[in-house]
Amino acid sequence: xxxxxxxxxxxxxxxxxxxxxxxxxxxxxxxxxxxxxxxxxxxxxxxxxxxxxxxxxxxxxxxxxxxxxxxxxxxxxxxxxxxxxxxxxxxxxxxxxxxxxxxxxxxxxxxxxxxxxxxxxxxxxxxxxxxxxxxxxxxxxxxxxxxxxxxxxxxxxxxxxxxxxxxxxxxxxxxxxxxxxxxxx
Length: 185
What we know:
single chain, 185 residues, mainly alpha, 2 domains, 9 helices, 0% strand
């Protein structure tokens, strides 16, 4: 059983399961789905009444969404620590492209040349973390949701703004991958 859980699931299993989540959320009242809502609910729970945007009944609106966030963190821990294989299979052409950027250690789940404290505690590392965090925060606020919210339930609800947002997410990912990432290495 552990062997089955330690491999990626095929698309024809995982895809319909995600679709069932979207259908269930539409069935129970078109509830918003995504991680960006969780931060707002968490802030409303911690600092109620301090800031106008957080003045609402987070228990009525966001209780199930916070349970989803806790489940995602627990599931991420189980998947990353208990069921993880010691390395990730990377296509040879991707290995070569990353090697050209100076990334050569593929022994763990993430390249050690990029994801370590000594890389983070540099001016470049802090600028990337703070700048990336600002871009993600601004983008989710401006788009009215995150990739999971727009990409799963927004598209399932046939929302025009979700289609525009998903196109923007993909365009931003391509720009970051082929334009910004090579400048960082």
